[in-house]
Amino acid sequence: MNGIKIRGTGRALPEHVLTNGDLTRMVDTSEAWIASRTGILERHIRTGETHASLCRDAARSALERAGVAPEEIGVCVVATVTPDTRVPSAACTLQKALGLSYDTLCFDLNAACTGFLYALHTTECLLAAAPKKFGLVVGCDLCSRLVDWTDRNTCILFGDGAGAAVVEWRAEWPSAGAVLGCAGNDELLRCPAPPEEGYLTMEGQKVFKFALAAVPWCIDRVLERHGITAGDVDFFVFHQANARIIDLAAKKYRIPPEKYYKNIQRCGNTSAASIPIVLSELADADRLPRGSKTLLVGFGGGLTWGGALVEMA
Ligand code: ACO
């Protein structure tokens, strides 16, 4: 038995807020349509901020709350599909900004909206072999970079932001027991890389159906792996892609309102950042006390999906 617990979390959101009302002046849509179909009322969109500045601010705040010094970090993984530069990676840029040691493993990881879960699992595995037992796991996406602002099917859904978690690995702690999956598919959700031109495209309804199947699959596998029931979980944190997906999952597992949370109304879908931003908001509100067990569920492009059970240290 060996695994990670979360020591501290942080987040950073761009200052500028784009409301549904603003979007009605950009595309043929209505505030009521967006609110009722997605649960989103507004989202943060970068103006002066960069991917690097959001990663840095979220990570600094997580380190501070964890009481961990930059030189204690053994592994730093940034989950993202929208870095400022491909080389250096966002994680290497973050290493420089925070003053992480030269022997810290720093790299980016692309699993779209499931990125934070993939990064958490990767960090847990790497920390088992690393001399330093603290890891920095960041999810950051500037979705505004991927979005065609004339496409009403997608531009209403996304926001920008970063979230970070400092984790600690100990031999006597149980593994987060992540369950991760992937089914290569470039029809439902696609965003080309240069030199090919184009923005993110999505078959919304089909992705919605995929999510409705992926979420219970993840929850069931995590519960099974840990030998617990939904009632034993202290908190559920879902990727914030659509309020309806979260509410349906809550209904299916009879999760009471005090055990799950939505910030999609304020943040939209921030891709890899959504889960750590939620964790950070909950921690600041003292809703994730020490010892509490949180079941994380993510899904998104790839297609990818995943779940894990993490404890607060
Ligand atoms: N305003 C008004 N009408 C719209 C808008 C809009 N912004 N967007 C689409 N419509 C129209 C459509 O054109 C369609 O019209 P039609 O019937 O005349 O063709 C109608 O509304 C219904 O469209 P649907 O796509 O069926 O709407 P739906 O209820 O499925 O909601 C949505 C669409 C919100 C995108 C939903 O399907 C969804 O949330 N999907 C999941 C998205 C997701 O989870 N993504 C996660 C991964 S993202 C990542 O990994 C990067």
Summarize the structure.
With 313 residues, this protein is α/β, with parallel strands linked by helices. It is 32% helix and 25% strand. It has helices spanning 20-24, 31-38, 51-66, 90-98, 115-129, 204-226, 243-252, 264-267, 274-284; strands at residues 3-12, 17-19, 42-44, 73-79, 105-109, 134-142, 160-170, 179-182, 189-190, 201-202, 235-238, 293-300, 304-312.
- Topology, number of strands: 13
> What is the end-to-end distance?
16 Å
Main sheet? 9 strands, mixed
Strand fraction equals 15-25%
Mean pLDDT: 97
Overall, the morphology is globular
Bound ligands: acetyl coenzyme *A
What structural class do helix, strand and pairing data support? alpha/beta
H-E order: EEHHEHEHEHEEEEEHEHHHEE
Number of helices: 9
Q: What are the low-pLDDT stretches, counting only 5+ consecutive residues below 50?
A: none
Q: Share of helix among residues?
A: 25-40%
Radius of gyration: 18 Å
Oligomer: single chain
Describe this structure in words.
The protein is α/β, with parallel strands linked by helices and 313 residues long. It contains nine helices and 13 strands. It has helices at 20-24, 31-38, 51-66, 90-98, 115-129, 204-226, 243-252, 264-267, 274-284, and strands at residues 3-12, 17-19, 42-44, 73-79, 105-109, 134-142, 160-170, 179-182, 189-190, 201-202, 235-238, 293-300, 304-312. Helix 4 links the parallel strand 4 and strand 5. The strands form three sheets. Strands 1, 4, 5, 6, 7, 8, 11, 12 and 13 form a nine-stranded mixed β-sheet that branches. Strands 2-3 form a two-stranded antiparallel sheet. It is globular. Helix 3 packs across helix 4. The two termini are 16 Å apart.
